[in-house]
């Protein structure tokens, strides 16, 4: 669908706003962190592919879906929750330093999304060769190091030492790393004459920054009454049907998705260089067999899964925390406390540190590098399997832990994931646009609802059910949240079905 008239542009803006609003809201409801950010990134990348005007991108939508997911993954490594909390606890008239922080953090988050998608578009159009790709990815660690040294240091919480630019109170923020990567990538785009990627990066940066400021302003207005004593969505909040922080998350996705879509529409219509982007192909920058990169990527994912098998003994403090969070029950807590120590073994601490450090390379940088080398199979894995696996992992190894049938859940959900990989490798299966959107929407929402409604999930354990109290008292803010999600899911599913089958 080409952005050559008013109707396609309006539809593009609307679908993008709805899709990313849902994706960002779902991220804060179920997964969080870097992995959770992959969903809104994938949805935005998919929207760009559908409305790009390129038959190639529409057919191979998973390329931009994967690039969007990986580009959005970067931003989740920042600390931002404290900045949000500090700002939302203040009166609306005091915009404050924290709002500036949200503009910066939102800009970095979506700016890296724009950089990944923009540069990948240019790669498909033939702009980058093997030497350039290797140089760019080889410089990413250097960009990150320089940014960290300039903006994340010095930091010593015990001594109250913080960087000069600091938007929290007690946490290392990690903004400098992302700032270094973003500036470094922008410099590479400029040197390569990649104006399309530069414009998309700039527009995405502004969209993320402005979007977070506007969304946070809405949350503040919802929490604090104005001079007349009224609040934004005050009726729903007062009745306990809406959590104000969900307003911020869903609004951020809507504003940022709208801004990114508007930026891309402007590029399509006013950038002369984009006209050549209708002739695209998947580059083959190496002579390696096509199975090498996906096999290496799957091996890395399998290596990461070992963390669910090799676990260190929990300390007494951690067991108390798990009991408080309802992640274990009283009997399990009592048994585990008999052998628990006050401090974890040093060897396991090193192992966990390695696991944590490896997440960004395994789930972001390495697969993105493989895609830039021309591996469309890795893009397929990211677009469907990885985005499915991260939500499955979060639930079957955390939210569903207390389910009496937890092993059935683990066998079923992990088995489905293994089947996806097998089908792609053995049968050459390519998930279509409609099944992919179905998994992003209905699939995510169904899994999330299980954890939100089941009595033995952390959110519901020991709380009254609708039979024991009113429906409103039992589920509170989840009513509006999931009602909104379902409306968004229905909209994007109908749209995807129309695109693929009509």
Low-confidence stretches: none
Shape: globular
Provide the structure class. mainly alpha
Task: Describe the main β-sheet briefly.
Answer: none
Order of helices and strands: HHHHHHHHHHHHHHHHHHHH
The end-to-end distance, rounded to whole angstroms, is: 13 Å
Mean pLDDT: 90
Strand tally is 0
Could you estimate the helical fraction of the residues in percent? over 70%
Task: Output the number of helix runs.
Answer: 20
Strand content: under 5%
* Rg estimate, integer Å: 23 Å
Provide a descriptive summary of the structure in words:
The protein has 502 residues and is an all-alpha fold. The protein is built from 20 helices and no strands. It has helices at 6-31, 33-50, 55-59, 62-73, 81-88, 96-124, 130-151, 175-192, 195-223, 234-238, 244-270, 292-305, 316-324, 330-337, 346-372, 376-399, 406-427, 433-453, 471-475, 478-501. The chain is globular. The chain starts with 5 loop residues before the first helix and ends with a helix.
In short:
This protein is an all-alpha fold. 70% of the residues lie in helices and 0% in strands.
């Amino acid at each position: 669908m080409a952005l050559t008239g008013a109707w396609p542009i309006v539809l593009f803006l609307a679908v993008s706003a709805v899709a990313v609003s849902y994706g960002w809201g779902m991220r804060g409801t179920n997964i969080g962190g870097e992995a959770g950010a992959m969903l809104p990134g994938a949805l935005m990348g998919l929207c760009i592919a559908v409305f790009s005007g390129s038959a190639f991108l529409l057919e191979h939508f998973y390329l931009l879906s994967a690039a969007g997911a990986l580009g959005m993954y970067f931003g989740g490594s920042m600390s931002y929750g404290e900045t949000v909390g500090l700002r939302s606890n203040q009166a609306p008239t005091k915009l404050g330093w924290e709002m500036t922080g949200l503009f910066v953090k939102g800009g970095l988050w979506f700016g890296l999304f724009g950089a990944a998608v923009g540069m990948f578009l240019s790669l498909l159009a033939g702009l980058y060769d093997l030497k350039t790709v290797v140089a760019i990815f080889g410089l990413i660690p250097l960009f990150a190091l320089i940014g960290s040294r300039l903006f994340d240091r010095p930091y010593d919480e015990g001594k109250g030492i913080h960087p000069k630019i600091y938007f929290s109170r007690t946490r290392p923020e990690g903004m400098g790393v992302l700032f270094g990567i973003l500036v470094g990538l922008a410099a590479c785009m400029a040197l390569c004459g990649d104006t399309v990627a530069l414009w998309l990066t700039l527009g995405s940066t502004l969209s993320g920054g402005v979007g977070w400021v506007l969304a946070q302003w809405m949350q503040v207005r919802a929490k604090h009454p104005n001079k007349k004593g009224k609040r934004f969505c005050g009726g729903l909040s007062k009745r306990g049907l809406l959590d104000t922080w969900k307003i911020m998350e869903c609004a951020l996705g809507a504003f940022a998705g709208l801004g990114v879509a508007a930026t891309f529409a402007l590029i399509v219509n006013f950038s002369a260089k984009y006209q050549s982007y209708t002739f695209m192909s998947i580059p083959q920058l190496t002579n390696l067999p096509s199975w090498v990169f996906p096999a290496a990527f799957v091996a890395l994912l399998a290596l990461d899964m070992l963390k669910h098998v090799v676990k260190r003994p929990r300390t007494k403090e951690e067991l108390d925390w798990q009991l408080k969070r309802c992640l274990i029950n009283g009997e399990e807590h009592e048994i585990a406390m008999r052998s628990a120590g006050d401090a974890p073994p040093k060897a396991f601490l090193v192992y966990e540190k390695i696991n944590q450090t490896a997440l960004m390379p395994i789930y972001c940088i390495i697969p993105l590098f493989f895609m830039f080398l021309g591996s469309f199979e890795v893009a397929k894995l990211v677009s469907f399997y990885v985005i499915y696996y991260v939500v499955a992992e979060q639930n079957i190894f955390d939210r569903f832990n207390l389910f009496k049938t937890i092993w059935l859940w683990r066998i079923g959900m992990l088995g489905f994931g293994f089947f996806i990989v097998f089908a792609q490798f053995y049968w050459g299966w390519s998930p279509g646009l409609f099944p992919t959107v179905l998994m992003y929407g209905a699939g995510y929402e169904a899994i999330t609802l299980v954890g939100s409604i089941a009595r033995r999930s952390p959110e519901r354990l020991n709380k009254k059910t609708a039979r024991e109290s009113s429906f409103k008292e039992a589920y509170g803010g989840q009513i509006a949240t999931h009602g909104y999600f379902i409306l968004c899911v229905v909209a994007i599913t109908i749209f995807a079905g129309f695109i693929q089958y009509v």
